[in-house]
Amino acid sequence: MAEAGRDDGGPGVIRSAFELLELLRVLGRARLADLTRESGLPRTTVHRLMGQLADVGAVERIDAHYRLGPNLLTLGQHVTPLERLRAVAQRPLIELAAATPAHVGLLAMAATGPIYLDVFVGRGRLPFRRQPGEPAPSGSAGARLLQSGGPALAIDDGSAIDGVSCAAHALPLPGGDVACVGMAVPLPRLPRALLAPLQATTSRIATLLAAHPAEPM
């Protein structure tokens, strides 16, 4: 039998799957028991749906925990300008990560909030590793910049994540939207000498975007 109309292979099961994805967005990482409790769905349904979502790359399983998978970002690229932005920004971001000790990221606003579009690992060891498609941490420089729409530069000296400092520079996009280039280092205070290459990289990406406008649909 279908479970209260929510697991019938039609709109009910699709709605349940999206509820689980939204829970993962809010929780970041969650165990099967957490998702069962928060969703109110039967454990067998949650287990099966998470397995199916993992099979298509919408979620990833790490030990006993689940989190959103990067394949969600891949789908989004084909209905938004994000694919072109990532393609244009990739080389400047790689070069910034190679020229500095910082971990470098490209961030933009999604319907659910600020997310990472791309991440390039630097030389310093961070207590975490971000993945494309993950939400930006609340209070981080990138999240604050994108959510406030204020100054072009935001800096966080270890208040969002203990022992990690970060900065983000706004990247205006054609059409009036804004993304940002961010960097993070495993230090309680961001070395201000890193701000010049951060700004230069952001300006370079903006110039490339302007020089290569999107083709009309």
Q: Please, could you describe this protein's structure?
A:
The chain is built from 7 helices and 8 strands. It has helices spanning 11-27, 32-39, 43-55, 71-77, 82-99, 141-148, 195-211, and strands at 30-31, 59-62, 65-68, 103-110, 113-120, 153-161, 164-172, 178-185. Helix 1 (11-27) crosses helix 3 (43-55). The model is unreliable at 1-8 (pLDDT under 50).
What's the total count of β strands? Answer: 8
Coarse structural class: alpha+beta
SSE succession: HEHHEEHHEEHEEEH
Strand arrangement across the biggest beta sheet: 5-4-8-7-6
Stretches where pLDDT is under 50 for at least 5 consecutive residues are 1-8
Average pLDDT, rounded to a whole number, is 85
How far the N terminus sits from the C terminus, by CA atoms, comes to 46 Å
Count of helical segments? 7
Overall geometry comes to globular
Helical fraction equals 40-55%
- Output the radius of gyration: 19 Å
Largest sheet: 5 strands, antiparallel
Strand % is: 15-25%
Organism: Pseudonocardia yunnanensis
Protein name: Helix-turn-helix domain-containing protein
